[in-house]
Amino acid sequence: QVTLVESGGGLVQAGASLSLSCVASRGFFGDYAMAWFRQAPGKEREFVGCIAWRGETTYYAESMKGRATISRDNRKNTAYLQMPNLQPEDTAVYYCATTRLGVGFRRVTDYDTWGPGTQVTVSS
């Protein structure tokens, strides 16, 4: 069973960029498709995007198309979420998660392993 830890969050001003990382340990990261989700205060956790186990396919939530890029480097057991031009509405805890189901799944319940999350706060 892989374990996940996110990093790279912080407090930024609107218009700034962030690159989040998700490092996997205790397992072969390349066995899993993985996704990024986010949860804003008082809201449900929502799908941001996902990437196939070899990184050849990605899917994004409609609201995130053109605003986020997901990539992975299985040699480093690391996945990335790059977000340029952040806005206050992007303030949330960002989570990475893995699944053996394959790429393209968008529900929280489709993913069985989660990191603890990293906080991203965007000030106006």
Give a description of the structure.
The protein is mainly β. It is built from no helices and eleven strands. It is globular. Strands 2, 4, 5, 6, 9, 10 and 11 form a seven-stranded mixed β-sheet that branches. Helix content is 0%, strand content 48%. A hairpin with a 4-residue loop joins β7 and β8.
> Which bin fits the share of residues in helices?
under 10%
The chain-level structural class is: mainly beta
Low-confidence stretches: none
Shape: globular
Mean pLDDT: 94
**How many E strands?**
11
N- to C-terminal distance: 40 Å
Summed up, the helix count is: 0
Q: Strand percentage, roughly?
A: over 45%
Radius of gyration: 13 Å
Order of helices and strands: EEEEEEEEEEE
Biggest sheet record: 7 strands, mixed
List the helices and strands and how they pair.
Blueprint: E1 3-7, E2 10-13, E3 18-25, E4 33-39, E5 46-51, E6 58-60, E7 69-73, E8 78-83, E9 92-99, E10 113-114, E11 118-123
Parallel strand pairs: 2-11
Antiparallel strand pairs: 1-3, 3-8, 4-5, 4-9, 5-6, 7-8, 9-10, 9-11
Descriptive keywords:
124 residues; single chain; mainly beta; 7-stranded mixed sheet; 4-stranded antiparallel sheet
Question: Briefly, what is this?
Answer:
The chain is mainly β and 124 residues long. The chain has no helices and eleven strands. Strands 2, 4, 5, 6, 9, 10 and 11 form a seven-stranded mixed beta sheet that branches.
